[in-house]
Amino acid sequence: MRILVTDGMDKTALEQLRANGHEVVEQFYAPEELGAALRDVDAVVVRSATKVRASHIDAAKGGRLKLIIRGGVGVDNIDVKYAEENGITVRNTPMASSNSVAELALGHMFSCARFLSVAGHTMREGKWEKKAYGKGFELGGKTLGIIGFGRIGQALGRMAKGVGMEVIAYNRSHVPGIEERMGMKYVELDELFARADFISLHTPSLGGVKLISRENIAKMKDGVVIINTSRGDNVDEGDLLEALNAGKVRAAGLDVYTEEPSANAALYSHPSVSCTPHIGAATKEAQQRIGTEIVEIIQGFGK
């Protein structure tokens, strides 16, 4: 197969693909150039930077393309239904990055509780603001509400229980056996909003529906902490900023944004926001596992 890798890939996996006899082209294409490039490859491997839309699939018609692989969990940067309607298989690597994303979410929870981001920043400015940042709180004994209880949500739940948190979870469909198997309680969304001290989002993009909105924030505890390592459009950034300024939301940990790179300086520069630039799956271990899954998908394709 001739394989286009647009957003980078683990070096060992690239070497394995070539050793297996595949031709691998590593190149990023601007959106207006991508469709034509896809005509000349059998498979394309993307991460989050490249978006494969219906227009690209139309431009690739009559060519070689038959497989799109998303190196990661979410596939909302690919028009999956349209691709499959045109005979193109779409796959992802859902198991590879779960722990990495869950650990980052937990890290943001610690950062929000103990001012790690802003306190470290002020020290680099030569300040010693011990009194200002000596009013943190522990995660132990607090309630974590997880919205979206797939692999990442479950991994975070296990980690949170390890530091002594109570974990409640909401999923659009009830995950069988979570109470017995994991010691976590399934609740409806409004109950989660009302009970949780921390709320962490782990759902795909919901097509414009905002999980974090003025209406839903009003249902939450005063001083709630919100974590988003899922998709930026799950949060109404204006409503979140308003709630941060009002103190209704104590802090937020954000790895994803409505626009990336984010242009919302008022949000990511807010002293109560712990922010990272969409690095949830960006660990050495996750990238190795993603690479391994991609190799397995390609080797098994068509068998």
Textual characterization of the structure:
The chain is α/β, with parallel strands linked by helices and 303 residues long. Helices cover 38% and strands 17% of the residues. It contains 13 helices and twelve strands. The chain has helices at 11-19, 31-38, 54-60, 80-85, 98-114, 116-124, 151-162, 178-182, 189-195, 214-217, 237-246, 265-268, 284-300, and strands at residues 2-5, 23-26, 43-46, 67-70, 89-92, 143-147, 166-170, 185-186, 198-201, 224-228, 249-254, 273-275. The strands form two sheets. Strands 8-7-6-9-10-11-12 form a seven-stranded parallel sheet, sandwiched between helices. Helix 1 (11-19) links the parallel strand 1 (2-5) and strand 2 (23-26). Helix 1 (11-19) runs parallel beside helix 13 and helix 2 packs parallel to helix 3. The model has no long low-confidence stretch (mean pLDDT 95).
Helices, strands, pairings?
Layout: E1 2-5, H1 11-19, E2 23-26, H2 31-38, E3 43-46, H3 54-60, E4 67-70, H4 80-85, E5 89-92, H5 98-114, H6 116-124, E6 143-147, H7 151-162, E7 166-170, H8 178-182, E8 185-186, H9 189-195, E9 198-201, H10 214-217, E10 224-228, H11 237-246, E11 249-254, H12 265-268, E12 273-275, H13 284-300
Q: Which properties best describe this structure?
A:
303 residues, alpha/beta, 7-stranded parallel sheet, 5-stranded parallel sheet
